[in-house]
Amino acid sequence: MNVLACDTSTAILHLALCIFDDQQNISWFESISLTAGNRHSELLMDRIISLCADASIEVSDLDLLVAAKGPGSFTGLRIAMATLKGISCAANIPLVGVMSLDAWYHAIDFADRPTLVVIDAKKQRFYSALYERGERLVGPADLRLEQIKELIDHYPTLLVSGSDAPLLAKRLDKNLTIAHGKGSALALSLARLGVKQYLSQGVDSDEAGPLYIRVSDAELALLKRTQSLEERDD
Question: Which residues contact 127 (CB under 8 A, 6 or more apart)?
């Protein structure tokens, strides 16, 4: 099975092209991780074509597309989902979305300890999920620093992972135990979870899209304008 996995939930673009054997193990892969900033839309399709060309695999020969569906950057998530949906529709390739924090958790060699996975959500908040023994116990949630501190105090042996674990440690001014994954680990984790989800649940519905757990700034601005107009009419 030829699988393309893509994560654009942060400023880093993660891509992996994997070949899975009949036992659902990765027999071969090639991956890319690069700092894209706000240039995901410029880089993503070119990198997908390049990755497939380097492996002598046509995009139409892909058997499954896997997208990190969030939480994360609103713009980044929309770009990945729209790009992979376009490929899916054009080439009739199945598409599944995997929760970003799940992919981060399964990308590390975690011990038998609770693990908090975080992505910077700006405004002194972090998209967070708490895991233990392979299961997600809390989240995904949009947590304030005070809420995260309470979680950490409740779990004295907590590991912290995710793209912004070091930033969380700095914000909390605490010496946290941070679990780091290798550069290719996130995209490979995403691919594995995507294959597992596809084989057990099938493809996502046509209406499926990014996972947003916070209202965007644009939506907040629209809501405020609407409320202002309603108050003026009253």
Answer: 71, 72, 100, 101, 118, 119, 120, 121, 139, 140, 141, 142, 143, 213
Structure tokens of 64?
Answer: 């499954």
Phi first, then psi, for residue 202 (nearest 5°) are: 85, -165
> Where residue 153 falls among pLDDT bands split at 50, 70, 90?
confident
Q: What is the pLDDT of residues 105-145, one digit of tens each?
A: 999 876 578 999 999 999 899 999 999 988 999 989 999 99
DSSP per residue, 19-75: EE-TTS-EEEEEEEEEE-TT-HHHHHHHHHHHHHHHTT--GGG--EEEEEEESS-HH
pLDDT tens digits for 178-219?
987 766 899 999 999 999 999 999 998 877 888 888 654 443
**CA-to-CA distance for 83 and 1, rounded, in angstroms?**
21
User: Bridge partners of 7?
Assistant: 14
Q: Name the CATH superfamily for 2-99+187-219.
A: ATPase, nucleotide binding domain (3.30.420.40)
Q: Are 100 and 69 in contact (CB under 8 A)?
A: yes
Q: How many CA atoms lie within 13 A of 227 on its CB side?
A: 6
According to the CATH classification, is domain 108-178 in 3.30.420? yes
pTM for the full predicted model: 0.88
Question: What ranges do the domains of the chain cover?
Answer: 2-99+187-219, 108-178
